[in-house]
Structure formats: structure tokens, C-alpha cells
Amino acid sequence: MKKLLIFVATAALAMVATAQTPKIESGADEVINYWDNASAPHSNCDSKPEKITVSKGKYKVSHTTETVFYIFKAEQSKGHSLVIFPGGGYKSVNLNFGLGKWLAKNGITTMIVKYRLPNGHAEVPLEDAAAAVEYMRTNADRLGIDPQKIGVSGSSAGGHLAAWSSVVLEGNQKPNFAVLYYPVISGHIWTNKPQWSTFEELLGKWRIPAEVDNHSVDLLVNEQTPPTLILHCYDDELAPTNNSTLYYKALKHHGVKASFHIYPSGGHSWKDYKKQWLEATKEWVLSF
Predict the structure, then answer these.
(1) What is the span of the domain harbouring residue 72?
(2) 3-state class (DSSP) for residue 223
(3) DSSP assignment string, 43-103
(4) Is 130 helix (H, G, I), strand (E, B) or coil?
(5) Is residue 21 part of a domain?
(6) Contact between residue 242 and residue 279 where contact means Cβ atoms under 8 Å apart
(7) Dihedral sign from CA coordinates of 81, 132, 68, 115
(8) Which of 81, 134, 161, 236 shows a CA-CA span of 20 to 30 A to 175?
(9) Is residue 270 situated within a structural domain?
(10) What CATH number corresponds to the domain at position 101?
């Protein structure tokens, strides 16, 4: 009887563990487990186990310590590709594979990145962004893409990572264009907690002004910044439109090709104008 009770308890614990860590079902053509804290150049020093919650096919992943690439190969490709960094305030990576599937059906090979969260180590997500672009470029022939038609994209904190990587990366790691959805750009916008907490997750609680400046992407733009499409909603209360206007102004100042679309409603999303956002994205990517 004692052995039976031990067996039942063990089975129950296994069931709980399984329930707490659902498997990510992406439907991707390729899933690449690229590296983790032990094999990457830097670690985010997060010792907590990865946590995944799922709702309606969307995955919220926190305490990420492994970098995974989900690749959706284009139908009738002309060589264009887009690397997407999901949002989550640098506190989670919110995976939604619908955009990747839609872009692939419309001729754009897409990689969605589950990147390692910074946990106060800002170099870590940038390291993963660099690896993602470089992977696409070095595997361009195999993936059927043009190595000079690789863009980056992201929403919210993922938009910050996409903008940041497009500005500071070089060589094989530098994207050719960018698409930003309601991005967090500046660490000097203190209008609400979600805005400043993104920079707290990135740099740590005791960040100094110089560090904030060095990660406020509007202050880093230069003439080599690739062409950028920005989409935002006027009533976004989580990442105010100030972020996008600051970034657009910086792009304009440095003579960088840019397009800025601001919609009257939709909040911190694109729900009210989803069709328009998708078409704008497709048109921009296929223009290169």
C-alpha cells in the first residue's frame, strides 16, 4: 500500500509539472534550438525554471534561458524575410505564430525568435537578435532567401529590440530594414509603469542616466540605420506614441527612409486595424 501511495504521488507530481510547462506548438517548418545561457557568449543569470502559460494558441514565456528560432518558409518566395522579436516588456516573450504563418503565405520567409530575457543584462537579448539575423544570412541559400533582403520586426519591447538591433549591429548581423509595432523606444518617457518597467527589466533597478541614454534608440540613430516602418495607435496607454514620434524624428533628421502610420484606435495592439497593418507590413517588406 505504501509503494502504491508513493507511485500515485510521483505520478501526480509529474502531471502537475507537465501542466505547468505546456509544449509550444508553433507549426513552424523548422525549429532551431540555437543556444542557452551555458553556450551563449553571455548569460542572463536567471536561475528560475522557464515558465510557459498558453491561451488561445498564444504562449507567454518567462524566465527564458534558451534561444529558439521558429522558421516559416515562404510560399512563392522572392527572397524577402523578416525576423520577429515578440513583445512582453522584457519580462516575458509573448509568442504568437499567426503573423509568421500569414507572412509565409504572402511570400515572406519569417523567423520568430524566443529570445533570452535580459534580467538586467541588456547584452543578452541583443546577442540573440544578432544571432538570429546572422543565422538567416548565413543560411540564405538553404532557406531560399536573399541575404540583402532580411528585415527585423517587433512589438512593444520587441520593437525596442528590433530598433536597437537595426541601429547598433554591423556586418552579417545588421538587418536591411525594420518594421516596428507600437515600440518602446526611449527610457526618458515616464508616463506609466509599463513604459519605465521595460527599461528596468532591461537595465536593472539601479540603472544610471548614461545607461538609459545608451539604450534609448532615438538617441542612437545614424545615417547607417536601415529604412524603417513604424505603426502605432493614438490611444496606446502602455507604450505612448511619443516613442514612435521621437524615433521617426530621429530617422528623418539623419536622412533615413521611413514611413510612420498612426491609427486612431486599437490601444497597445493592432486589433482595430489589423487588415491595414498586415497590408502595410507586406507592402513595406516586399518593396526591398
Answers:
(1) 27-285
(2) coil
(3) -----SPPEEEEETTEEEEES--EEEEEEEPPSS--S-EEEEE--STTT-EEE--HHHHHH
(4) helix
(5) no
(6) no
(7) negative
(8) 236
(9) yes
(10) 3.40.50.1820
Three-state secondary-structure class, residue 42: coil
> Residue 215 to residues 97, 131, 200, 229: CA-CA distances in angstroms?
28, 19, 11, 20
**Helix, strand, or coil (residue 228):** strand
DSSP state of 40: S
| Separation in Å, CA 34 to CA 60, 234, 274 | 20, 37, 31
Give the chain's domain count.
1
Distance of CA 61 to the CA centre of its chain: 12
Smallest CA-to-CA distance from 71 within 136, 162, 126 is with 136
Q: How far apart are the first and last CA of the chain?
A: 70
Q: How many CB atoms lie within 10 A of CB 262?
A: 14
- The DSSP-derived string for 243-284 is HHHHHHHHHHHTT--EEEEEESS-SSS-GGGHHHHHHHHHHH
Strands 30-36 and 66-72, bridge-based pairing: antiparallel
| Domain-embedded: residue 90 | yes
- Tens digit of pLDDT per residue, the chain (288 long)? 444 343 334 444 344 444 457 889 999 999 999 999 999 999 999 999 999 999 988 999 999 999 999 999 999 999 999 999 999 999 999 999 999 999 999 999 999 999 999 999 999 999 999 999 999 999 999 999 999 999 999 999 999 999 999 999 999 999 999 999 999 999 887 666 667 789 899 998 888 889 989 999 999 999 999 999 999 999 998 899 999 999 999 999 999 999 999 999 998 998 899 999 999 999 999 999
If you write DSSP's letter for every residue of 191-217 in order, what string do you get?
Answer: SSHHHHHHHHHHH-TT--HHHHHHH-G
Inside any domain, residue 56: yes
